[in-house]
Fold this protein.
Amino acid sequence: MTAPLQAQPAATAPATGNVKAGTLVDIMARKGFWAQVRGGGATGWLKLSSLSLDSSGGAGEIAALASGRTGTGNVVSASGGRGLDAADLAGATPDNAAVAALSGTSESAAAQFAAAGNLKARAITYLRAR
Amino acid sequence: MKARTCLALTALLITGAQAQFKLEDLGNLTKGKNLPAGVGDVLGKVQEYAGNQSADDEVRSGDTIAATVLGAAPVWRNQKVQSYVNLVGRNLARQVERKDVNWRFAVLDTPSVNAMAFPGGIVVVTRGLYRLLASEDELAAVLAHEIAHVNRKHQWKVIQKQKLIAMAGEAVTKGNSDRTAQVVTDLGTRLIARGLDKTAEFEADRDGVVIAARAGYDSSALISVMGRLKALPNNADTSLLFSTHPSPADRIEAMTQAATPQIEAAATPSAAAARIKTAQ
């Protein structure tokens, strides 16, 4: 299975090559719902939907094609804490004190936090299903 | 009514087609009509228990349901992270229409990968999911999806509908408020385990993308999170998430299809993206 690479971030752009599923690629740039990637001897733009992201994160983020299993260790920690599956829920004893202890934060503190992060609110309309 | 949201309890009482009536229909039914002795009382009771309730009732019920989840997975003892997540979440909540919500956010100490919203405004993210997130934009995307569920009352509407049906059956014999509270808690806990229908999840994805973008975050961050979920194996830590949501690939596809030029233009990392690294 392969995914096509495009010369520009558009499905209509000329193809620059193909990458095989499972290939590790470097993300060089992002634009809209596209990522410019390099890997498997090719460079080009790939839809974000073709990528599966490695959570090691960092600036030089590595990604692999999702349709195959990624070669890197996307392992979820098995240590610490209890599980939270349907059986765990069914057997749980309610902890009302833990709920009562949740205090939240104020709207004004949140607004200050947004300003400190240089986050600017934008008017954006809701999306419709298509 | 979708099969996934149809609990066994309700299925016995009323068939899917008959369950489509709305709460208001009951009011019309009882208004100005001479009902047989006792029927008016029963309908009145049902309406009292299951009718449109205040935000206080929603918070009370949601908190009771959340208590069960917190009984299964405790709040992570990391005050820095808890404060941080509350600030990110509360700021996002400023972008939605509902103002009658008691917003509280928490990270739960469990390796399971999941996030949940409860009626009335408790939103939780598991430590297993939190550690996968690479930026504040990705955290915001997850929280915004959950905020959308509360803003649209997705869970609360399902609980109300099913409570109406459950209580209609019980009211014929006898109903009391303790029993009603128990029914709501049971319905809510089962809803957490079974999940909402796919339509509600896709809607929360679309709304979540918009809510995060409104707050100044990267509109493609939820797609990035889905990319991370796609890479996870289906195991004990992911089974509940994967069984209660459409596949990450389907969710990415639906968001991509729904995206407008306005949303695509907002697909750049925010200035606050790296702030998550200060709260680990």
